[in-house]
Design brief:
Length: 110
Amino acid sequence: MAEDLAGLSIPIEASTALLREQMEAAAQVVGGTTDRIDRSLSKVDKAFDRLDQASRAVKRAVGTVQKDMDTAAAGVGTAAERINRSLGIIGHPRLRALRWHVDLADCSRF
Protein backbone atom coordinates (compact mmCIF):
# COMPACT_ATOMS: atom_id res chain seq x y z
CA MET A 1 0.00 0.00 0.00
CA ALA A 2 2.87 2.40 0.68
CA GLU A 3 4.02 1.83 -2.88
CA ASP A 4 0.56 2.71 -4.14
CA LEU A 5 0.57 5.94 -2.17
CA ALA A 6 4.05 6.82 -3.43
CA GLY A 7 2.88 6.23 -6.97
CA LEU A 8 -0.13 8.49 -6.49
CA SER A 9 1.85 11.41 -5.13
CA ILE A 10 4.00 11.68 -8.26
CA PRO A 11 1.11 12.27 -10.70
CA ILE A 12 -0.51 14.73 -8.29
CA GLU A 13 2.77 16.70 -8.10
CA ALA A 14 3.05 16.69 -11.88
CA SER A 15 -0.55 17.91 -12.22
CA THR A 16 0.14 20.72 -9.73
CA ALA A 17 3.19 21.86 -11.71
CA LEU A 18 1.13 22.01 -14.90
CA LEU A 19 -1.60 23.91 -13.04
CA ARG A 20 1.01 26.38 -11.73
CA GLU A 21 2.37 26.94 -15.25
CA GLN A 22 -1.10 27.52 -16.63
CA MET A 23 -1.97 29.88 -13.76
CA GLU A 24 1.22 31.91 -14.41
CA ALA A 25 0.40 32.06 -18.13
CA ALA A 26 -3.13 33.17 -17.31
CA ALA A 27 -1.79 35.79 -14.90
CA GLN A 28 0.46 37.15 -17.67
CA VAL A 29 -2.45 37.31 -20.10
CA VAL A 30 -4.65 39.03 -17.52
CA GLY A 31 -1.81 41.41 -16.60
CA GLY A 32 -1.23 42.32 -20.25
CA THR A 33 -4.93 42.85 -20.80
CA THR A 34 -5.13 45.00 -17.66
CA ASP A 35 -2.20 47.11 -18.89
CA ARG A 36 -3.86 47.63 -22.28
CA ILE A 37 -7.15 48.57 -20.61
CA ASP A 38 -5.33 51.03 -18.33
CA ARG A 39 -3.58 52.64 -21.32
CA SER A 40 -6.89 52.90 -23.20
CA LEU A 41 -8.62 54.43 -20.19
CA SER A 42 -5.77 56.90 -19.82
CA LYS A 43 -6.28 57.98 -23.44
CA VAL A 44 -10.01 58.36 -22.83
CA ASP A 45 -9.35 60.43 -19.69
CA LYS A 46 -6.97 62.70 -21.62
CA ALA A 47 -9.53 63.08 -24.40
CA PHE A 48 -12.21 64.09 -21.89
CA ASP A 49 -9.77 66.56 -20.30
CA ARG A 50 -9.16 68.14 -23.72
CA LEU A 51 -12.91 68.19 -24.38
CA ASP A 52 -13.48 69.91 -21.03
CA GLN A 53 -10.82 72.54 -21.84
CA ALA A 54 -12.33 73.10 -25.28
CA SER A 55 -15.84 73.46 -23.86
CA ARG A 56 -14.57 76.04 -21.34
CA ALA A 57 -12.90 77.97 -24.15
CA VAL A 58 -16.12 77.90 -26.18
CA LYS A 59 -18.08 79.06 -23.14
CA ARG A 60 -15.67 81.99 -22.67
CA ALA A 61 -15.90 82.87 -26.38
CA VAL A 62 -19.69 82.74 -26.32
CA GLY A 63 -19.69 84.97 -23.25
CA THR A 64 -17.41 87.46 -25.01
CA VAL A 65 -19.58 87.42 -28.12
CA GLN A 66 -22.68 87.92 -25.97
CA LYS A 67 -21.09 90.92 -24.26
CA ASP A 68 -20.01 92.35 -27.63
CA MET A 69 -23.51 91.87 -29.02
CA ASP A 70 -25.04 93.53 -25.96
CA THR A 71 -22.62 96.46 -26.35
CA ALA A 72 -23.40 96.72 -30.07
CA ALA A 73 -27.14 96.59 -29.41
CA ALA A 74 -26.81 99.32 -26.81
CA GLY A 75 -24.77 101.40 -29.27
CA VAL A 76 -27.36 100.93 -31.99
CA GLY A 77 -30.09 101.93 -29.54
CA THR A 78 -28.17 105.03 -28.51
CA ALA A 79 -27.50 105.94 -32.14
CA ALA A 80 -31.16 105.43 -32.98
CA GLU A 81 -32.16 107.72 -30.12
CA ARG A 82 -29.71 110.40 -31.28
CA ILE A 83 -30.96 110.16 -34.86
CA ASN A 84 -34.54 110.39 -33.67
CA ARG A 85 -33.77 113.45 -31.58
CA SER A 86 -31.80 114.99 -34.44
CA LEU A 87 -34.61 114.46 -36.89
CA GLY A 88 -37.01 116.00 -34.44
CA ILE A 89 -34.77 119.09 -34.03
CA ILE A 90 -33.79 119.61 -37.68
CA GLY A 91 -37.13 121.11 -38.61
CA HIS A 92 -37.33 123.21 -35.45
CA PRO A 93 -37.67 126.98 -36.23
CA ARG A 94 -35.04 128.03 -33.67
CA LEU A 95 -32.46 125.73 -35.25
CA ARG A 96 -33.18 127.21 -38.67
CA ALA A 97 -32.80 130.74 -37.26
CA LEU A 98 -29.53 129.79 -35.56
CA ARG A 99 -28.24 128.31 -38.78
CA TRP A 100 -29.19 131.50 -40.66
CA HIS A 101 -27.22 133.59 -38.14
CA VAL A 102 -24.20 131.28 -38.41
CA ASP A 103 -24.30 131.52 -42.19
CA LEU A 104 -24.73 135.28 -42.00
CA ALA A 105 -21.77 135.65 -39.67
CA ASP A 106 -19.74 133.03 -41.53
CA CYS A 107 -19.04 131.24 -38.27
CA SER A 108 -18.19 127.88 -39.77
CA ARG A 109 -16.19 126.92 -36.73
CA PHE A 110 -19.43 126.33 -34.77
